[in-house]
Amino acid sequence: MRAIILAGGKGTRLRPYTTLIPKPLVPLGGKYSILEIIIMQLARSGFTHITLAVNHLSHLIMAYFGDGSRFGVKLDYSIEENELSTIGPLTLVDDLPENFLVMNGDILCDLDYRAFLETHVQAGSRISVSAYRRQVKIDFGVLRYDAANHLTEFQEKPAFDFDVSMGIYCIDRSVIDVLPRGVPYGFDNLMMDGLKNGHSIDIRPFSGYWLDIGRPDDYEYADMNFTELSAKLGI
C-alpha cells in the first residue's frame, strides 16, 4: 500500500515554533516529531511505500528520515520547486499506484488507514474524503431580521456543527492524470471542480480522535498531553 504525505508547507500558523524547523519536525512530548508519528502509524497499518512531498526546509526533513529503513518502509521524496498547494504536488509523483492514500503531515489521528483505503478500493470510489464533526461557537449574539429590518430571531452565542475535511483522502490515479503537471491546485479546487463536473466524491465520516496541529494552541495542547495522546494513537 502506498501513501503520500504532504509535508511542504511553511507552517506559518504555527510560528514561532516553525521559525527554524519545518512543521512536520516539530517535537511532541520531547520524544517524536509529528511526521514521525504518522509514519509509524502508517507502517503499522501495512503501508510499505511512503512518499513525502516536500518543499520548505526539505533538506532537514530528508536528512532526518532518510530512506525510511528504521521505520520498516520504503521512503522517498517528491521535491516541489514552487508551492503547489495540496493536490498539485501529486502531479510530480510519476509512479502513483491505481489507488493511494494522501494526508497532511500535521495530523494526529487514530483512523484505521488500511481500512480507509480498502473501503475506498472496494467501493470503486474515485475520491474518498475522511470527515470529522466539529462544533464552531459564535462569541456574539446573532441577530436575524426580515426585509424591513425587524428582528425575527435572536440567539445568544450559538454553536453550529459542521462536517469538516480531516486532510486525509484516498484518490484514484485517474483523478491526478488529467491535472496539469507542476501547477498549483488545492483540495478546494478538487472539490469545487468535482461538484461542477458532476464527479462522484465519497465522504466517509469518522468519529475517533483527530487533531490538526496547525495552530499554537493545538500544538501546545498536544505537547502537554502527549502521554495521554500516545495511548490513543497507539505509539
What does this structure look like?
The longest helix has 11 residues, at 34-44. The mean pLDDT is 89. The protein is globular, with a radius of gyration of 19 Å. It has seven helices and 13 strands. The strands form four sheets. Strands 5-4-1-6-11-8-12 form a seven-stranded mixed beta sheet. A two-stranded antiparallel ribbon has the order 2-3. Helices cover 26% and strands 31% of the residues.
The average pLDDT value, as a whole number, equals: 89
| Number of helical stretches of at least 4 residues | 7
Shape by Cα distribution? globular
Q: Roughly how much helix do the residues carry, as a percent range?
A: 25-40%
Give the percentage of residues in beta strands: 25-35%
Quote the distance from N terminus to C terminus. 21 Å
Classification by helices and strands: alpha/beta
Q: Strands across the major sheet, in which order?
A: 5-4-1-6-11-8-12
* Biggest sheet architecture: 7 strands, mixed
Strand count: 13
Low-confidence stretches: none
- Radius of gyration from the alpha-carbon trace, in angstroms: 19 Å
Please outline what is shown here.
With 235 residues, this protein is of the alpha/beta class. It has 7 helices and 13 strands.
Task: Set down the secondary structure blueprint.
Elements: E1 2-6, E2 27-28, E3 32-33, H1 34-44, E4 49-54, H2 58-65, E5 74-79, E6 99-104, E7 107-109, H3 113-123, E8 127-137, E9 141-145, E10 151-156, E11 159-172, H4 173-177, H5 187-196, E12 202-206, E13 210-212, H6 216-224, H7 226-233
Parallel strand pairs: 1-4, 1-6, 4-5, 8-12
Antiparallel strand pairs: 2-3, 6-11, 7-13, 8-11, 9-10
